[in-house]
Amino acid sequence: MNRKRPTGVTIAAVYAIIAGTGEVIVGFSGNYLGILSIPLPPAAAYPAAISGVFYILGGLSLLITRKKWGAVLGIIFIGAEILGRVYIVVAGLFPINRTNVFDIIVGAAIAVTVIFYIGWKWKSFE
To answer: Which end of the chain is more exposed for a tag (fewer CB within 10 A), N or C?
Structure first.
C-alpha cells in the first residue's frame, strides 16, 4: 500500500482547518475581515463558532491519521459543519441577503466537495 498521504488530502485537511478557524473568528467577531455583507447577530455567535470547530476537527482528523477511521471522522465532522450552516439559516440566525446567501451556498458546496474528495481517495487510507 502507498505509505504517503496524497497531497490533495493534505490540502483538503489544511483548508478545512483554515476555513474552520475563520468560521470560529467570524462567529465571535460578527464579521471578520468584512467577509459578510451584513455582520452576524450575537445569537448566531455560538452556532457559527461550533460549526467552525467541526470543520477544524474534520481537518485534524484527516491530518492526524491515515487510517480509514480518521477519514470517517473527517467526513462526519465536515458533514456536521454543513448541518451547522443549515441550522443557522433555518433558525433565522443568519442575516439573509443576496451576497450572504451566495457565501453560504459556496461555503457549503466547498465542504461537500471536500467530503466527496475524501470518498474518492478512500483507497489511499489504511
So the answer is: N
**Please, are residues 13 and 59 in contact by the beta-carbon 8 Å criterion?**
yes
Place of cell 490540502: 11
Sign of CA pseudo-dihedral 87, 79, 59, 96? negative
Q: Please state the rounded mean pLDDT for residues 2-23.
A: 89
- Please tell me the predicted confidence (pLDDT) of residue 37: 60
Give Rg (Cα) of the chain.
15
Is residue 20 a contact partner of residue 59, using CB atoms and an 8 Å limit?
Answer: yes
- The domain limits of the chain are 7-124
**In whole angstroms, what is the distance from residue 94 CA to residue 100 CA?**
8
